[in-house]
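Morning F.,

Quick status update on the modeling queue. The single chain you submitted on Monday has been processed. Sequence for confirmation:
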Amino acid sequence: MTCAPSEPGCNAPYLPINEALLALVRMMARETARSDFATRRDGEVTNG
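Structure tokens below.
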């Protein structure tokens, strides 16, 4: 028997939305890191 997450005392072990939300957060963090790296690389002065 399962319980609704809104019920008191219910500890739902897994909700599919959590996995999707985590994937979205990871993707956004990855894109932010790429953007930050690209911005830093564009601002560097090379001696060549």
